[in-house]
């Protein structure tokens, strides 16, 4: 070999050898984040506390904000709303954790009387939890309360302690019978054992309650299955999958990483191959003196998980409506010429199919998530065939181009015909007979969704804007974007996070302490809808303070005193009977506990039955949360 060639090649060999050794060393050890997040929190005898929790021996990037854990006296603790909770157990498979209040640990006499208040953006109560309410300093015998043998000593003397496992007819604190009340969630099975004298009140409280973790299980599961550890991207606040070599956005790059068992073999292979390849390339360049022009860039595949709409569409088979191309959609709407509605979901256009049928075409915004709500609507309505369910004539899905094609409803949504305080549309108010017929038809539509299909469909967003009216004011339930499919035999469904519209969401949807989420959640929304239809929800009017309570307490008083004019205004006796029946039924529908609400089948029977057979429902013990203003939507046809 030419001496000059060897002389120029020697420094290159030294560099490549150095790089090869470093490659071998780097491949021979794990990424620091991967190693740190591979350990559970080490505190006391409680094991298995892992993602999304962090703290103690786990760095903050090993969990999510709000899930920080401290080790106090060999006990893992988490703080929510200034209340410390002991972590008793974590079930990573079910994504749940069992906690107990520290101030009630081994005692029922806390230093301060504060209701349990968890962070519902991070946790939710499971269906296995019941509220146990303690009452302190009761001066009289309150019906339904069980007195404890224990008394609480204070600087002002001894205070009696009573408790109740079911809501009493009236709040003892509000009536002045007791000085303080504290709600402490516990396991339902423990309450049953308490009532059977198989457990003490202290044992029940110390057993704690179970909370579901409001996290994306699928995201973490995919990371773990790829060999990684779940964590937090501290730069952008998003999810990170910490792998042996580095951090990835979703899953470990198994193609480049290979199996863990072959890491050293890979390092040795690289150490040998790199110098050889460089020498060959060097000789090729020197001999041929040709430039290498064989480098081309490829599009990098996105690591983010994409919802496979196409696969889901194929899976639903015969249930799927007709599919149209985006060019067809553009043609049937005359290039989106006639806009009849707009909202956060997208825009609705008036269109016409080739056979002349008028349709409403909802073109979804490009920012509408990964297609989950879109396929929910296609799958849910595709399974239905009922006069009170809007007909889905077809759909379009071409990557970011998504549209839903419905039968056209000339009278728009029910929201346009409900009188509201300060509105000038008093001439659009529907007659009481029409309102009653609409209420019955909506109930029949919901009954069909809950019982009439092979698969039960829970709507989760019943409100006036989602009730469309045809030319004869026949109502049709629409907008199934939040719907959930479940087997008819399932009474309770699992759900991450609250879904629906403020003012219509059932209590158990945003707090599992009220019970499990089921078809009774739609019943609650229906009750709120009917109250708004008859004008009994004055607190939703713009002229009423947003701080007023949502539950219409005054309705009970006026019904008991037969002062219908306070609720409905100046109407005839026949109209009063119709209105009174609608209100009485709606009050049964909005009971706080789901099991206290009637099914939609029973609601239909009540609506079609005589008024004298209806009793006034008991006033709920707890009320809905303060209402928040809804997003501004201007529409005459909402789907």
UniProtKB/TrEMBL annotation:
Keywords: ATP-binding, Glycoprotein, Kinase, Membrane, Nucleotide-binding, Serine/threonine-protein kinase, Signal, Transferase, Transmembrane, Transmembrane helix. This is non-specific serine/threonine protein kinase. It holds the Pfam family GUB_WAK_bind. The keyword Nucleotide-binding applies. ATP binds at residue 362. It catalyses: L-threonyl-[protein] + ATP = O-phospho-L-threonyl-[protein] + ADP + H(+); L-seryl-[protein] + ATP = O-phospho-L-seryl-[protein] + ADP + H(+). It is a single-pass type I membrane protein. Its EC number is 2.7.11.1. It is found in: Membrane. It comes from the Eukaryota. Residues 1-20 form the signal peptide. Residues 334-622 form the Protein kinase domain. PANTHER family: RUST RESISTANCE KINASE LR10-RELATED (PTHR27009). PROSITE patterns: PROTEIN_KINASE_ATP (PS00107), PROTEIN_KINASE_DOM (PS50011), PROTEIN_KINASE_ST (PS00108). The chain crosses the membrane at residues 266-288. It is an enzyme of class 2 (transferase). One of its GO terms (cellular component) is membrane. One of its GO terms (molecular function) is ATP binding.
């Amino acid at each position: 070999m030419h001496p000059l060639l060897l002389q120029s090649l020697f420094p290159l060999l030294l560099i490549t050898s150095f790089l090869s050794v470093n490659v071998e060393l780097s491949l021979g050890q794990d990424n620091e984040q991967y190693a740190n997040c591979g350990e559970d929190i080490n505190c006391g005898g409680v094991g298995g506390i892992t993602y999304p929790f962090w703290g103690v021996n786990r760095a903050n990037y090993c969990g999510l904000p709000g899930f920080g854990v401290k080790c106090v006296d060999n006990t893992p603790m988490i703080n929510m709303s200034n209340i410390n909770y002991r972590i008793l157990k974590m079930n990573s498979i079910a994504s749940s954790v069992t906690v107990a209040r520290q101030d009630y640990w081994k005692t029922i006499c806390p230093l301060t009387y504060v209701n349990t208040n968890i962070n519902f953006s991070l946790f939710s109560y499971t269906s296995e939890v019941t509220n146990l309410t303690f009452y302190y300093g009761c001066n009289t015998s309150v019906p339904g309360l069980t007195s404890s043998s224990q008394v609480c000593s204070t600087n002002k003397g001894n205070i009696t302690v009573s408790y109740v496992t079911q809501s009493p007819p009236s709040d003892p604190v509000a009536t002045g019978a007791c000085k303080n009340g504290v709600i402490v969630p516990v396991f339902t099975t423990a309450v049953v054992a308490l009532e059977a004298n198989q457990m003490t009140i202290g044992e029940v409280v110390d057993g704690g309650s179970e909370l579901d973790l409001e996290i994306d299980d699928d995201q973490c599961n995919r990371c773990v299955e790829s060999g990684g550890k779940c964590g937090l991207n501290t730069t952008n606040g998003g999810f990170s999958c910490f792998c042996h070599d580095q951090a990835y956005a979703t899953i470990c790059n198994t193609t480049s990483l290979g199996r863990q068992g072959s890491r050293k073999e890979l390092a040795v292979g690289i150490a040998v191959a790199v110098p050889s390849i460089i020498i060959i390339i060097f000789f090729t360049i020197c001999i041929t003196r040709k430039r290498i022009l064989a480098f081309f860039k490829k599009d990098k595949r996105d690591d983010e998980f994409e919802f496979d709409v196409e696969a889901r569409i194929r899976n639903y088979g015969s249930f799927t409506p007709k599919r149209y191309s985006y060019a067809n959609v553009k043609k049937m709407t005359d290039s989106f010429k006639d806009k009849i509605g707009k909202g956060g979901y997208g825009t609705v256009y008036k269109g016409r199919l080739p056979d002349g049928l008028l349709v409403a075409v909802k073109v979804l915004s490009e920012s509408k998530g990964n297609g989950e709500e879109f396929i929910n609507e296609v799958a849910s309505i595709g399974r239905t065939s009922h006069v009170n369910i809007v007909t889905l004539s077809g759909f379009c899905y071409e990557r970011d181009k998504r549209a839903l094609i419905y039968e056209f409803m000339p009278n728009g949504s029910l929201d346009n015909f409900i009188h509201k305080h300060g509105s000038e549309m008093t001439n659009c108010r529907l007659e009481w007979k029409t309102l009653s017929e609409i209420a019955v038809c909506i109930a029949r539509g919901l009954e069909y969704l809950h019982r009439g299909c092979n698969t039960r469909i829970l709507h989760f967003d019943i409100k006036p804007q989602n009730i469309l009216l045809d030319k004869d004011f026949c109502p049709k339930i629409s907008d199934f974007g939040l719907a959930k499919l479940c087997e008819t035999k399932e009474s309770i469904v699992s759900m991450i996070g609250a879904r629906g519209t403020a003012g219509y969401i059932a209590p158990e949807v945003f707090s599992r302490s009220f019970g499990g989420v089921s078809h009774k959640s739609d019943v609650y929304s229906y009750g709120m809808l009917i109250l708004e239809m008859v004008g009994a929800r004055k607190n939703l009017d713009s002229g009423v303070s947003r701080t007023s309570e949502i539950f219409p307490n005054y309705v009970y008083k006026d019904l008991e005193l037969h002062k219908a004019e306070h609720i409905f205004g100046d109407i005839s006796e026949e109209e009063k009977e119709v209105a009174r029946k609608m209100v009485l039924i709606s009050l049964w529908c909005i009971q706080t506990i789901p099991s206290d609400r009637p099914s939609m089948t029973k609601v239909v029977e009540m609506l079609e039955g005589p008024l004298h057979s209806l009793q006034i429902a008991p006033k709920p013990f707890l009320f809905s949360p303060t209402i928040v203003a809804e997003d501004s939507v201007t529409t005459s046809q909402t789907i």
